[in-house]
TrEMBL record:
Family that this chain belongs to: Belongs to the bacterial solute-binding protein 5 family.
This protein's name: ABC transporter substrate-binding protein
Gene Ontology BP term (one): peptide transport
Main location, first listed in the record: periplasm
Location relative to the cell: Periplasm
Organism field: Pelagibius litoralis
Domain Solute-binding protein family span(s) in chain numbering: 83-437
Any single Gene Ontology cellular-component annotation: outer membrane-bounded periplasmic space
Amino acid sequence: MTITRRIANTLIAGAVILSAGLVVLPHQRAMAAEQVDGQLYMVIGGRQEVSNLDPAQKYDLAIRMMNQALYDALVKYEGDPAEIKPWLAENWTTSDDGLTWTFNLAKNARFHDGSPVNAEAVVYSYERTMAINEGPAWMLDGFVSPGNVKAVDEYTVEFKLEKPYAAFLSFLPWWYIVNPAVVEANAKDGDMGKGYLLSNAAGSGPYKLKSFEPGTAYILERNTDYWKGFPYENDRMGGVIYRLIRESSAQRAALIKGEADIVTGLSPEDWSVIRSNEDISVTTIPSLTSFGLKMNTAQGITSDVNIRKALAHAFDYDAFIKIMNGEAKLQSSPFTDSVLGHVEVSDMPRRDIAKAKEYLAKTEHPDGGFEIEFVYVEGFGIQRQMGLSMVDSFQDINVSVKMVPLTWPNMVARGSSPETSPNLMAIFTTPVSTDPDAVAIQYHPTSHGKYYGTHFLNDPELNAMIEAGRAETDWEKRKPIYAAIQQKITDLQPEIFGMMRNRGTTKRTWVKGYADSPIRMEGEIDFYRVHLQP
């Protein structure tokens, strides 16, 4: 493989022929893309390592970004606001009782080896994900069971739900279809191909896996025979290199120097610095993502709702906006603004020391005098600043803060049980669906131990409301249920509800076709439409 780099932002005085055969004409401004075997590869500078490529095992922003490139699902989220679009499924129907869903597949869809993406492949993929019971399996747990997904004919798939589930379709974009023949050929000792798909792919997506170098870089080759084609014409677009650049300052430098075409997750300070560069554009949109400080409601001092209320009213919410350089908005509900059914809760806590002391007076610690443990992501400056703001604001109610930085895996481990979960944990949460159930379920016992369920909230009345909302398929009847759920969660105060920060992607101006969607995680890019325009 021959890889060379074009020099960014350099005006070439005469025609230059690069080693991979690309001619840069006089006075043409060169791009920052890599050249791999003579074709242009877009360089993405991201912070998160790709730990696994198997869509049935786990997901985070880096894994999901790769899965979208390598695989297809029955339907796909696109646009802002996010909408579900037909993909492998050209259309679908639903029975009157909401229990039977029938999907008609595109007959021209092909896996990377040329074999058809048919109904049997869809059934196999869903059965495999349910059997592994990891990754996205929770999304349909209790609604779709093994044996309930059937091939009606070669290109028709039928789902029989155990009970009505209003959010069913909204979760399907994250259930990717794998090639059964490839998976079975590489399965070992009954592992259903888990070992193989950890670092290999068996999909039908717009990209193929070219190189997988954990902790360094991941190279995807554009699938020129992609069954849906591409929304642009550029035969020189060869693929994508996802390169790990872990620090915001290093990402900014790489973009300016021409060592990256797109970077994600820049700090607000770096956004401010880079905005004046005419060769760089910053795209920001409001996000479904929320940032909150989850409180352990099951163990320790924060198991007292009045302690939680006191902390929530002592916190300086203006710090959220200041730390984000204004690129954020305070939450007006436990549901972020873009979630269907969002309502503004009139009594959302804001800084009010008098009210904080009133709540403290109802506890065993009326004068404060205790310490709160705050856990946040090590090296994440924004979360550290939140902690420092908390130290200052909690002094006014005589509460001290112990700040504990941990790596993300260690944070997840700490939050896996109520006995080890800290008093407060900094968590960014992106719903995987635009349906309100995707947020409400985070406050149900089924989410306990997951990173977004480190509060271990368990309120019977709230649980019943959440279950009722999931089962009701008539939106006009669901709507008041979710309004009541938002109020109830606020009353229980399982976290300090924080902010919705604008999600930002920074790119060179020669990057075209980029389109974000709030359903995507912070730093996640859909490569399908993105290309380089020389």
